[in-house]
Amino acid sequence: MLVFTFSKVATKADPPAALRTAHPAPPAELTYRDKVIGLTQEVTNPFRHLEKDDKEGFKTHVDNGRRVYYQNCFYCHGDDLDGEGHFAHGLNPPPANFQDPGIIPNYQESFFFWRISKGGPGLPPAAAPWDSAMPVWEDHLTEEEIWDVILFLSEYTGYRPRTFGEAEH
Ligand code: HEC
Questions:
Q1: Is the CB of 151 under 6 A from ligand 1?
Q2: What are the extents of the domains in the chain?
Q3: What CA–CA distance (Å, rounded) separates 167 from 27?
């Protein structure tokens, strides 16, 4: 984890790079439109259980996540989810590379829900002086679309997000 944080930070020229936090802890809850959503560690993707309980239903959610991704995310995060999208090159910090094993396996789905819904502007002061271009998706996507795109990120890369109770790597 530290290695990843360092290499990500090291690509940025302005000091004091060492003080920046690439992956701050998510807040305990967030307001999504008018609804308060708890993001405690136990919160999991509401559609994740379908993977076991209803394979067809699960696939429908992953397919919807794929649609959401290729309509909204690939410009920056890349066709192959490797952070090499068309718009990536002008961006600093660069878009997350979901093929990097330091990302998906190290965080819970609630972390990704937070980052996708609140984007760069939602990062706490601990993450400053980042100037993240990651958009705020809560204005454009439904909650379900966000959980679905998280399933897609995981299915496409083959990496599973951490679940509550798993040891920190
Ligand atoms: C305009 C470019 C852009 C678009 C479009 C975009 N992102 Fe991002 N995203 C970024 C950048 C830049 C970062 C890295 C900085 C940060 O963490 O905020 C990032 C970070 C993230 C992170 C945090 C990863 C981590 O390691 O903490 C997630 C999750 C994410 N994006 C998901 C998405 C999803 C899902 C979409 C589509 C709904 C999307 N992004 C669309 C630019 C973009």
A1: no
A2: 24-157
A3: 20
For residue 31, the CA-to-ligand 1 centroid distance in Å is 19
Q: What are phi and psi of 99, to 5 degrees?
A: -80, -10
* pLDDT (tens digit per residue) in 43-99: 789 999 999 999 999 999 999 999 999 999 999 999 999 999 999 998 999 999 999
Element at 25 (helix H, strand E): none
Q: Whole-prediction pTM value?
A: 0.86
Nearest C-alpha to atom 8 of ligand 1 is from which residue?
134
Helix axes 109-118, 143-157, angle to 10 degrees: 120
Q: Quickly tell me which residue has 């509401």 as its tokens.
A: 46
Q: DSSP 3-state assignment of 135?
A: coil
CATH architecture of 24-157: Orthogonal Bundle (1.10)
108: amino acid identity, one letter: Q
The token pair that represents 61 in the structure block:
């959610």
Contact 50 CB / ligand 1 (< 6 Å): no
